[in-house]
Sequence to fold (152 residues):
Amino acid sequence: MPSDSPLNARLSGAQPYILSLFRAVVGLLFTCHGAAFLFGVLGGSDGKGGTVPTGTWPGWYAAVIELAVGTLVMLGLATRIAALLGSGAMAYAYFTVHQSQGLLPFENDGEASVMFCWSLLLLVFTGPGAWAVGRLFVGGRDRAGDRVAATG
Fold:
């Protein structure tokens, strides 16, 4: 398909909006993960409403990071910085918690850590998309000061 086809033009025009939806969903899921471990909601840390004991390393701190970062990413506030912190936390979780139980994510129950790590890393490079609360504070401009185009 030629790069100037009507379908490509339409898909490219929708990209900033779909990116915003992707960011919001990833942020919501990350927030829910942290809330489950901290507050015992959504099944909690053990599937029965359990929580991670306050102040325990690394579980409680990871849950706090997930809740805070997830909320920021979901809203589109300081998205790149928050996503970088969350991506690093998930890389740490994978290599310190999961990989000791097996080499591959399917063997060590690390799929969520890997998916969050790479999804958040993608947001570090793409930014929040067209619909982000953070855009209200910079007058519709991205970090470089360029006006954000609705189509790209």
